[in-house]
Design a protein that fits this description.
The chain is mainly alpha-helical. The protein has helices at about 20-45, 50-55, 60-80, 80-95, 95-115, 120-125, 125-140, 145-155, 160-190, 195-205, 210-220, 225-240, 250-285, 300-325, 330-335, 340-350, 355-380, 390-405, 410-420, 425-445, 460-475. The two termini are about 15 Å apart.
């Protein structure tokens, strides 16, 4: 009997065996911990944007300082595709586990270094330059993190529950944001705005260090995914049969996967704009003097976002269960259509600039995120074959998010400054959502019943493994 075939066989080749529940839980935890750490830093960075503007840039126009901080955020995203190329390629060749262990260490230590940077008052323009350099390093490492974590969890998960387990990747994203914003709120309430500007902000970035160390050991304790190990065993079997299989290159990945990469980016951009306009821009808008009404304090604006994030976490798990039941396409269509109504309504509420309206607006804003966030995440793995999943997924994810996520708060700030109203941001989000709606409706093919064990990129590999089994059966 073929040792690779521990579950079932068919014309698609051997499938990976079912994973024990205890192992599955460890795998999910190991997969999501890096995203949690990354998004914790993002939540902190977004929540203390007004503080960082004062610390790292010369005093004067508050809007210029805020835009400069958001530009640093955008630059970190713009370099992510390079990180996706580098770490994605390494992950497909060396394994998901090794590269995810590397990316979490890089991200965590670079985040902690932000906490010890000199201020503009102490070092002049060297301070924002060092901040920018660290943001570039973070973006490089983050470029190989998300797609790898999604591949890790999906390749461990049962075929009929992939979105359910992948929902924890989305949960880790928003849980990290919640932790960052909640700690910012708590520390600001404890120390006061003055102390936060003087030194308190440093604590928030330094806390990434223990999270990183814990995450590294969690990832080291789990085996690589069954799907990746299956691919390695099939490659070894092919070598035993004296057949040389060509290595997958980035050029091959782009040549064979360009269409699903563009389709994924076409609908993922709505998830990017929705999420990062909400979590990065709205708290800063509530604290700014732009638009009508009086600004909210740092603690109240951060608290309003934290409440919405707390409500979202269990909804994401339910979203995963629903996606496994009705499919990805219906969820994506709803996720791209609902912003056309929900976003203008939510932004109209935000413009009232009260704590109550901010909370209500952000709760309403969760409707499209409920439909789109988890389904986009699981599609990142389902749309690409195992042998190039990490590379192609990294390219697709970073293409969408480097253009639309990192730039979202910067574009939003510029639009409000130019037009005087936050409703201009709503128009921008709606235009992006409408384009994504067309992509899903006419270009996306359903993936939720896809057999990940079928390597549709290299059928020759399956032939080499399965033919000896068939011959043995006939004998």
């Amino acid at each position: 009997m073929n040792p690779l075939s521990t579950a079932h066989e068919g014309h698609h080749g051997p499938a990976a065996p079912q994973v024990p529940l205890k192992t599955m839980r460890k795998a999910v935890l190991a997969g999501v911990v890096g995203n949690y750490t990354e998004q914790y830093e993002f939540g902190v960075y977004a929540a203390v944007t007004p503080v960082l503007a004062k610390v790292f840039f010369p005093e004067g126009d508050a809007l210029v300082g805020q835009l400069a901080v958001f530009a640093g955020l955008a630059v970190g995203f713009l370099i992510r595709p390079l990180g996706g190329f580098i770490f994605g390629r390494m992950g497909d060749r060396m394994g998901r586990k090794k590269i995810l262990s590397l990316t979490i260490i890089l991200m965590g230590f670079l985040t902690a270094l932000i906490g010890i940077l000199p201020t503009y008052a102490a070092a002049g323009f060297l301070a924002p330059c060092l901040l920018l350099l660290l943001r570039l390093g973070q973006g490089l490492a983050a470029g190989g993190e998300y797609a790898g974590a999604v591949s890790f969890v999906v390749e461990y998960g049962p075929s009929d529950q992939r979105a359910r387990y992948t929902s924890f990747v989305s949960v880790s994203v928003f849980a990290g944001l919640l932790t960052g914003t909640a700690l910012t709120f708590g520390l600001t309430a404890l120390l006061g705005n003055g102390a936060m500007v003087d030194w308190g902000w440093r604590i928030l970035f330094l806390l990434a260090l223990p999270l990183t160390i814990a995450g590294f050991y969690l990832r080291r304790a789990v085996e690589d995914t069954p799907e990746f190990r299956r691919q390695q065993e099939m490659q070894e079997r092919a070598r035993e049969l004296s057949e040389e299989l060509p290595a997958t290159t980035i050029a091959q990945t782009l040549r064979t996967q360009w269409k699903p990469i563009l389709v994924f980016s076409g609908f993922a951009m709505t998830n990017a704009v929705l999420s990062y306009t909400w979590t990065a821009y709205i708290p800063a808008y509530l604290q700014s003097t732009a638009g009508p009404g009086r600004p909210l304090s740092l603690d109240l604006s951060v608290l309003s976002t934290s409440i919405a994030l707390l409500v979202l976490l269990p909804l994401l798990y339910l979203s995963g269960r629903l996606s496994d039941r009705i499919g990805r396409k219906k969820m994506l269509l709803a996720g791209c259509a609902t912003p056309l109504v929900i976003v203008p309504l939510a932004f109209r509420m935000v413009s009232a600039r009260t704590f109550e309206s901010a909370v209500l607006a952000q709760l309403v804003y969760l409707v499209p995120i409920f439909f789109i966030a988890v389904s986009v995440t699981v599609c990142l793995a389902e749309m690409f074959p195992t042998k190039m999943r990490y590379t192609a997924g990294s390219i697709a994810f970073n293409l969408a998010f480097c253009i639309f996520a990192g730039t979202a708060p910067f574009i939003a700030s510029a639009l409000v400054d130019a037009t005087g109203t936050i409703m201009s941001v709503a128009v921008y989000v709606c235009v992006v959502s409408f384009v994504s709606l067309l992509v899903v409706a006419f270009c996306f093919k359903e993936t939720y019943r896809k057999d990940l064990a079928h390597d549709d990129y290299n059928p020759e590999l399956n032939r080499l493994v399965n033919e000896p089994v068939a011959e043995a059966g006939r004998a």
